[in-house]
## 1
Amino acid sequence: MASASFLHITKQFPAGDVAVHDLCLEVADGEFMVIVGPSGCGKSTVLRLLAGVENMTEGVIKIDGRVVNDVPPRNRDVSMVFQNYALYPHMSVFDNMSFGLRMQGFARPVIEERVRRAARALGLGDLLERKPPELSGGEQQRVALGRAIVKDPRVYLFDEPLSSIDARLRAELRVDLKRIQKGLGTTSIYVTHDQVEAMTMGDRIAVMKDGVLQQVAPPGEIYDHPANVFVAGFIGAPAMNLIPVTVSGRLVKGSAIEVEVPRACGVDRAVLGIRPEALSESPSPRVPSLEMKIDLAERVGRDQFIYGTAGDDGIVARIDAGIQVSRGDRIRLGFDVRDIHLFDAHSGQALSP
Ligand SMILES: Nc1ncnc2c1ncn2[C@@H]1O[C@H](COP(=O)(O)OP(=O)(O)OP(=O)(O)O)[C@@H](O)[C@H]1O
Ligand SMILES: [Mg+2]
């Protein structure tokens, strides 16, 4: 077990692309850190730099307090699981999982013990004699996870390891993987572009965009206090409503919304954010509200998401599934002023209303 530190890491590829820009990130011993962000934002590059399979342009990486910049990958004692895992098709599950340990010269009883324990945790106990072509895609991916787990490294690196698995199994494996990691207590960095995975698995979440770290915080804090407009729009589904507004003193005005905020925030133009789940369909006359014209209603279990417009702005709201609505209806949606977020219109940074 170990901590991992990225200190002012920049990675520029010869082609000129800056994949990671001045990244500072501390992953604590035993922590499950999730790196999330859109495709191409530099997530895999961060993992590859820690694994040592890519060299950085600038900065220092430490594992357990020790600088590893010049330590070759095989001596870094990290274990990486990729999205596109490759198993040896002619070898049994047991042999696939134990391959690395055998190469490292571990004694047979140690190998047996570690493989059986990991196989049990991953629900592969009865499949150890099978070969990969006799397994489902999800089972194969679990073997790939098992192969990383048995190595008992100081840090696990997971690069979208569940993305090729169907939705239901993915939800199960998410829980399994988190439980295994907590059981072993191994420091882990998990990359995904799926914000649901990030929110459910991470002790903390690091949100990246265009090679730049936007915010690092526990899931609840990211959700409640996004640091900027990008994080606000990226985390949460459906996404937070983001409405351009003008501000004068404590009065905030949009095309179909008017709110008085507790404190003036010193800008004249801002973006007001309100989550779909913070809008309610039966507002008391005392709370601020907006009138929405409905284009589409989508029912998901007990919830119903309605999509439409208020003034010039597209709006999404979550309302009770029991309410009958149809296209063209108008509905008044209220909200608590404490649920709104304000962001600077120019910098995108959060303001505290
Ligand atoms: N070998 C390379 N040479 C040049 N540019 C590269 C190289 N590898 C990655 N990049 C660029 O660096 C940026 C970050 O790539 P990276 O693979 O880290 O993104 P990612 O966040 O993992 O994306 P995805 O979610 O699609 O896997 C991208 O713009 C990519 O095109
Ligand atoms: Mg990637």
## 2
Amino acid sequence: MAAHILTITLNPTVDYCMTAPGIEPGLKLRCTEPQIDPGGGGINVARAIRLLGGQATALVAIGASTGANLLQLLALEGVPTVAFQGPGETRQSMSVIDQETGSQYRFVMPGPVWQDHDVPRALASVDQAARGDTLVVLSGSQPPGVAKDFPSILSDHVAGKGSRLIVDTSGPALFHLAEQPRESLYVLRMNGEEGEELAGRPLATRADTAAFARELIDKGVARIVVVARGADGSVMATKDGAWHGVSPPAPIISKVGAGDSFVGAFTYHLSQNAPVEDCLRWGVAAASAATMTEATRLCDPEVTEQQHRDCVVSQL
Ligand SMILES: Nc1ncnc2c1ncn2[C@@H]1O[C@H](COP(=O)(O)OP(=O)(O)O)[C@@H](O)[C@H]1O
Ligand SMILES: [Mg+2]
């Protein structure tokens, strides 16, 4: 039986994406009509899974009128959503492409500050939404005010429900997961820079990345550890071994959403009980597909299939 997938977004956003004829200070920059998308890590993971033919429920903290707007956008996209009351007003973000240079400027706001009583509300919503064998995905920035041990607490909660947690995070929350391991965490995924920051050393070769991923496995940080290597794909370690997966080089159009596409494809195939090496192959393929599509687009399903056929996975 396939597992359910529940993605969690504590700090969602309504994304406005547009172009301007040339970006200069002091002028009124007359932009094109914006493309408006629901965004934030977990939401993008759920959208990627939907694009790939699966279904994930997005659990989102929402606030005030932008929160209501976000729910409408998710409904229009056909992403099943469970909302709970978060603090303040859901944030917005804006990305503007300069038509002259093609450079993209991304303006991202911090989001409302969480108070102590907001975290138990989030955990209670997870408890309600995660039933039986659910793959729960936590992706995206932690809202201001949420303590660094939130993913660890969530991991124990989810395991207590008989479900499994997949975390893609950075900064203090990532360090905390690595420094105070919980047996309950199923997958920990990070990109290359996050990996080097956590390792405290450069991870120049695939062998370096694999050695670091194995260290995390040996410390009991998670059952599966994935560390990306930029254009050189991703390395995955479990107690049974380590693998590297890479797609053939392709022209990069926009890297936005590549990490969430990786997590979406990886989780979707885990939910179908595919072997972990094949989940890695799908994740690498979807990340690569996302880099081949324009700004806000996630992984195109046909490009992902093609990349999956061409992706090379080898044991390290
Ligand atoms: N040319 C490339 N440069 C950087 N990342 C790439 C490239 N091609 C594929 N990728 C993959 O895209 C993903 C980017 O992940 P991440 O940095 O977490 O993205 P995000 O910006 O969405 O958080 C990684 O899995 C990485 O291996
Ligand atoms: Mg990322």
